[in-house]
């Protein structure tokens, strides 16, 4: 049975002959010295929420404490320094969250786990050394620690939670512990100063948004053990220059490298099977892409607004040029549409302003709306008799000097003759 009492300016409870500090009678205590014992009984715990939002600047924790409870110092905005004795074995969730002035923390040597939100939004925290006993780091543990420059994570850690270092905008480098096999979701999302990340040979998965908006990340060595890279994992990594993807990757997720505006060189794996929507959207400096013939599916907007792209090899086994796939590729001069393609989607080649010539293979049945809209320099276009459907404005904005090759009596002839396009040079083919 526990009972409550007051000692000096502390509220406390006693249970099993040990003391738990539950709060303060005073609103402001600049120098907080927690007693080691009260009435001959050891103080072993700082209870959940004990000092939440109090005006505390420094705290002295005795070596009798083995637990710091949930939200124990939550919102202590003036707290600047914490030294935790090695007797502390548990630090509860959000124990130091929103301690905006906290710049220095000494961690206990035998701690096994950092709970979720423990140091979230500790904006002044500069660096932290984690103990060699540590096994896991919880979700959002250091989220928003915008002054954190470095952190050493020991190899004993096997699990790091999502968003663990999200918006640590001063963090410059990070080395993953050897026993971690996953780069968690949004772990470095918004780490705008991150330049170097070391992944080890056992790493298997990079989860969605892991490096989103890491604008200083120039390169990353992806080990051959990586099997999955999640959606938007490297989106807005604007300094990323070169990219080599290991052979273990069979799918590129949505937006995975979108808006990597500094990306120049890309090497795709020979076992790649699928490129999902907007995978390279806005990669404005990529000049050449070779897509291996192992790829059977490319989704909408995959290369949308790759403005510098001059050459691209499309795999022979794709059956569709999807919506917006090459839209806005302003430098693309020619392209070979594979012989198995049956559909060219809406806006597939819209605003490919440098495109000079294109032959549509006999396999194509459908050409979508605005498929070639704004292809101003297109000088030669061949449309086979197999085409049975052409969408609105499919060829609007083409040059009046365009030579069109088509079959007499074909659907394409009927479409073009009934349109408002000023076609001056038609060549009929068998």
Write a structural description:
A hairpin with a 2-residue loop joins strand 1 (3-7) and strand 2 (10-15). Helices cover 2% and strands 25% of the residues. The strands form 11 sheets. Strands 1, 2, 3, 5, 6, 8 and 10 form a 7-stranded mixed sheet that branches. It has 430 residues and is mainly β. The termini are far apart. The protein has 1 helix and 36 strands. The chain is elongated, with a radius of gyration of 31 Å. The relative contact order is 0.05. The mean pLDDT is 94.
- Helix and strand composition category: mainly beta
Beta-strand content: 25-35%
Q: Can you summarize the main beta sheet?
A: 7 strands, mixed
Q: What oligomeric state do the depicted chains represent?
A: single chain
The percent of residues in helical segments reads under 10%
Distance between the termini: 97 Å
Taking pLDDT < 50 over at least 5 consecutive residues as the criterion, the unreliable ranges are: none
Question: Kindly state the mean pLDDT as a whole number?
Answer: 94
Coarse morphology: elongated
Q: Figure out the total of helices.
A: 1
Rg over CA atoms, rounded to whole Å, is 31 Å
Number-wise, the strands total 36
Outline the fold blueprint.
Layout (H helix, E strand, L loop, with lengths): L2 E5 L2 E6 L2 E7 L6 E3 L3 E2 L2 E6 L11 E3 L6 E2 L12 E3 L6 E2 L12 E3 L6 E2 L12 E3 L6 E2 L12 E3 L6 E2 L12 E3 L6 E2 L12 E3 L6 E2 L21 E2 L12 E3 L6 E2 L12 E3 L6 E2 L12 E3 L6 E2 L12 E3 L6 E2 L21 E2 L12 E3 L6 E2 L12 E4 L5 E2 L12 E5 L3 H8 L6 E5 L1
Parallel strand pairs: 3-6, 4-7, 6-8, 7-9, 8-10, 9-11, 12-14, 13-15, 14-16, 17-19, 18-20, 20-21, 22-24, 23-25, 25-27, 26-28, 29-30, 30-32, 31-33, 32-34, 33-35, 35-36
Antiparallel strand pairs: 1-2, 2-3, 5-6
């Amino acid at each position: 049975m526990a009972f409550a009492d007051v000692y000096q300016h502390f509220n406390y409870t006693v249970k099993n002959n040990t003391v738990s500090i539950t709060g303060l009678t005073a609103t402001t205590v600049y120098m907080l010295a927690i007693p080691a014992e009260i009435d001959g009984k050891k103080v072993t715990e700082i209870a959940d929420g004990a000092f939440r939002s109090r005006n505390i600047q420094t705290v002295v924790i005795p070596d009798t404490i083995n637990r710091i409870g949930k939200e124990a110092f939550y919102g202590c905005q003036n707290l600047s320094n914490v030294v935790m004795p090695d007797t502390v074995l548990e630090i509860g969730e959000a124990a130091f969250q929103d301690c905006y002035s906290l710049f220095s923390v000494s961690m206990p040597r035998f701690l096994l786990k950092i709970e979720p939100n423990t140091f979230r939004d500790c904006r002044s925290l500069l660096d932290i050394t984690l103990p060699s006993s540590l096994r896991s780091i919880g979700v959002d543990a250091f989220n928003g620690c915008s002054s954190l420059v470095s952190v050493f994570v020991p190899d004993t850690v096997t699990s790091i939670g999502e968003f663990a270092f999200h918006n640590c905008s001063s963090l410059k480098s990070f080395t993953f512990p050897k026993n971690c096999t996953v780069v968690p979701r949004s772990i470095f999302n918004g780490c705008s100063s991150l330049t170097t990340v070391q992944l080890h040979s056992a790493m298997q998965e990079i989860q969605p948004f892991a490096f989103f908006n890491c604008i200083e990340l120039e390169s990353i060595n992806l080990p051959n053990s990586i099997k999955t890279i999640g959606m938007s994992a490297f989106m807005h990594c604007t300094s990323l220059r070169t990219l080599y993807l290991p052979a273990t990757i069979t799918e590129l997720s949505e937006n995975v490298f979108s808006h990597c505006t500094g990306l120049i060189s890309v090497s795709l794996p020979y076992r790649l099977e699928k490129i999902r929507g907007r995978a390279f959207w806005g990669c404005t400096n990529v000049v050449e892409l070779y897509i291996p013939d192992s790829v059977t599916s490319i989704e909408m907007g995959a290369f949308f607004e790759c403005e510098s792209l001059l050459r691209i090899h499309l795999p022979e086994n794709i059956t569709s040029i999807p919506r917006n796939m090459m839209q806005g590729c302003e430098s693309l001069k020619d392209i070979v549409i594979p012989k198995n393609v049956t559909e060219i989607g809406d806006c597939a080649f819209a605003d490919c302003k440098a495109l000079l010539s294109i032959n549509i293979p006999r396999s194509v049945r459908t050409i979508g709306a605005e498929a070639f809209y704004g292809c101003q320099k297109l000088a030669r276009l061949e449309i086979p008799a197999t085409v049975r459907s052409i969408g609105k404005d499919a060829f609007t904005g083409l040059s009046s000097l365009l030579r069109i090759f088509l079959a007499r009596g074909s659907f394409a002839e009927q479409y073009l003759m009934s349109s408002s396009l000023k076609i001056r040079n038609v060549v009929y083919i068998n």
